[in-house]
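>> received
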Amino acid sequence: MDNRTSTEQIIAAATNADTMNRRAAMGFLGKIGMGAAAMGLAATSGTAAAAPAKDIDGAVLNFALNLEYLEAAFYLAAVGRVDELRRIGGGANIILPAGLDQSRGMNFKDANVQALARDIAEDELQHVKFLSGALGKASAPRPVIDLNGAFRAAGKAASGGKIDGFNPFLNDLFFLHGAFIFEDVGVTAYNGAATLITNPAYLQAAAGILAVEAYHGGAIRTMLYQQRQVSAAAGLYVGQVVQAISNLRGSVGGMKDQGLSDNAGNMIVAPADKNGVAYGRSTREVLNIVYLAPNATKGGFYPNGLTGSIK
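>> returned
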């Protein structure tokens, strides 16, 4: 007779990567998520290099879910599908610019930018569905998301007050700038969270999502680099605006950022350290960026803060 507890049996089965299928993984994830939620775990002060605490996988994945809610809201709004996200995670408000047609999305001029937006929107929606579905009843509800005032504040801060009323849904170029704000943060967030995840199956899933986010980021950077000398707004070129965004993120997010070019003018498609390794941010560094202020507990893109225990 097997004298192990049911929890030990679940863990033993879940950690056997050779025999574990997706259904088993999602079932186990739900149990871990509920356990983490019940314990009220918090890891807001952890650093990317810190040793992982026990049994916080559910809390970490809910943190990732909060970030996916934001990215999905941005891209789905751009392509006229934001109502699909409203049907997931509860009834919290998604604040959008008044002039955006929520049933049709923005008016793209470049078919390539529109195709990219549609592809990324679908990926981000599936990330939300995967994480929320796997966590089940332990999944964090969708927080209030601000894609209006937060972008206005970010644009003003990054340009030293020169850009007022930034709206990423106004045109293709502004959309790419808005996307740039998110994508690199997503990559560094998943990379930083890797040391907090205790179960190898979830680490593999997180690595898979990180890879997709990195593809997104590389595509966005490539399109912006191609237009780096195009006038953006307030007398600034695209390259200057993107560098200003990077500098702002770096100043509150651990100086782990790069613009479109190095000092010699060479393209940077993948922000990385001297070893060519992608940067990893702690949860606190990520929160500093999305709240648009260091050490804040709410604000920016999340006016009421994140949901879940890491917030």
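>> The longest strand covers residues 231-233.
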